[in-house]
Design brief:
heterodimer, A: alpha/beta, about 40% helix, B: about 160 residues, alpha+beta, five-stranded antiparallel sheet, 4 helices, 10 strands, about 40% strand, elongated
């Protein structure tokens, strides 16, 4: 059973070296991670799957389009930060995007049923970031839980894929896969869906691969 | 009020690993758990769960709670971000019905650490060197170009303090 952390930040965005994050995540029950700030040649060999990601932030569709279609980044796992509703609809029609993330910090109604339909048709995942669930307290946390509840409602209807990420920058942001499962179950996510979401990154990468010529 | 033993509720015990930047005690951990439980599930649920910290042998702690509240206690532990004002994380490891099996798990998992100095990029840094191949650099006056949490593969040389 694959358990992949959907996004973590290594040194210099965070404070941990690659080896240390791998060692900690292995102990916490993960089998792989998607990570920012690592070059392909620096990925340590081993059974722990490390997927480098290009993490694109910004509210300008042209800039995002330029980044996504950069030939150097083609085929690489690509996450884009969500914005307001119009931007999200445009992002969901762009080729080369695997995951839409940070919906918890997007404006209200940023992700509606039209976006959900687009995400399901184009097999683009939505990222459930668990870090705000322990980082925030009070009303801001309630808002995040409500956003996730809405996403889960749409997911139940349109069945677009989900990914689960910690967004960890330091050692203290990492939680065991068991704790993440418990926490997400408490906010209303189904256990089967959690298991599928932990493993969905590999499926996304396979489905978005460019067409290959096969000789007969 | 005293109840007959057959009328008493059963407890369960959870073993959790505490990762913290500072020295803390069982009371500090109890305050952190109680605070996060109250904030996540409300005070009524917190009063029903009967959470108590039984012991704390760094880095492991044993937390007792009422049977049926395991999932809620684990979720509350996951949301701890600070203990006594210092950055911290509490990772649930094992849940059991007896404190004895939880204690046995601690003996299996124990490791120790020593203070020392490590060499990275031709510079020496003070560090906590653990027997499980992990090294935590001590933050005071640290070079911003070096990660704080590393493994033995990341360093060039090490010396233990006397």
């Amino acid at each position: 059973m694959q358990r992949i952390d959907g996004c973590s930040f290594l040194f210099q965005s965070g404070s941990c070296s690659v080896g240390r994050v791998v060692s900690e995540l292995k102990e916490m029950g993960y089998t792989g991670m998607v990570t920012c700030g690592i070059k392909d040649e620096k990925i340590p060999p081993g059974d722990f799957k490390i997927i480098p990601v290009s993490y694109i932030r910004g509210a300008n569709i042209r800039a995002i389009q330029k980044e996504v279609q950069d030939p150097l980044k083609k085929g690489k796992y690509c996450m884009v930060q969500a914005g307001e509703n119009g931007l999200n609809r445009s992002l969901l029609t762009l080729p080369g995007i695997h995951t839409l993330c940070d919906l918890q910090s997007a404006p209200k109604n940023a992700f509606d049923r039209f976006c959900a339909q687009l995400a399901a048709d184009r097999n683009i995942a939505l990222d459930i970031r668990v870090r705000p669930l322990w980082e925030l307290r009070g009303v801001p946390r309630e808002r995040v839980i409500r956003t996730y509840e809405e996403i889960l409602l749409l997911q139940n209807r349109y069945e677009f894929p989900l990914t689960i990420s910690s967004g960890a920058q330091t050692l203290f942001d990492i939680r065991t896969s068991r704790a993440v499962t418990t926490l997400l179950t408490e906010i209303g996510m189904d256990k089967d869906l959690i298991t599928r979401s932990f493993a969905s990154v590999l499926g996304l990468l396979e489905n978005h691969q460019a067409a290959r010529e096969i000789s007969v | 009020m005293r109840l007959r033993p057959s009328m008493r509720e059963n407890y369960r015990y959870i073993l959790a690993k505490v990762v913290c930047t500072e020295l803390v005690d069982a009371k500090d951990i109890y305050h952190a758990v109680s605070d996060t439980f109250g904030s996540l599930f409300g005070e009524i649920q917190a009063s029903f769960a009967w959470v108590a910290v039984m012991e704390y042998n760094p880095p492991y702690t044993i937390i007792r709670f009422r049977r049926g509240y395991g999932q809620k206690v684990e979720a509350a532990l996951a949301t701890i971000t600070s203990v006594k004002g210092a950055a911290a994380a509490v990772h649930p490891v094992k849940t059991s019905g007896t404190i004895r099996t939880v204690r046995e798990e601690i003996y299996k998992r124990n490791f120790s650490s020593r203070s020392g100095r490590v060499k990275i990029n031709d510079e020496w840094f003070s560090a906590e060197i653990r027997t499980d191949n992990r090294i935590n650099l001590i933050e005071k006056g640290i070079n911003p170009n070096i990660p704080l949490y590393i493994t033995e593969e990341d360093i060039e040389d090490l010396h233990y303090d006397e």
